[in-house]
Design brief:
122 residues, alpha/beta, Rossmann fold, globular, phosphoprotein, CheY-like_superfamily, Bact_response_regulator
Amino acid sequence: MAKLIMVVDDSASMRRVVSIALKGAGYDVIEGCDGKDALTKLTGQKVHMIISDVNMPVMDGIAFLKVVKQMPAYKFTPVIMLTTESAEEKKREGQAAGARAWVVKPFQPEQLVNAVQRLCLP
């Protein structure tokens, strides 16, 4: 059975690019258009990794990550932040909230898939 990755980004085209890269590498993908939408899709199923944008309307990626890390089913789910945000302060905020990696857009799909393969839950 393929590993399930959640992709959270307010850009439909960005979700599509990430999904195509992940599906091409053999992963299943569920998508959320912002943090709040993504939370409604975390229903206790095993999610092997979450890839989230930082700057989104309704609920941003850092606020989303803080909520996810409080949920027993997802406390140990690795999270990669995929964002245009490259400020050290934001990176530290993301790490403090529980992000395992920080990938800055624009990115190479292979680079993202390699990070996923390294960090994904077994």
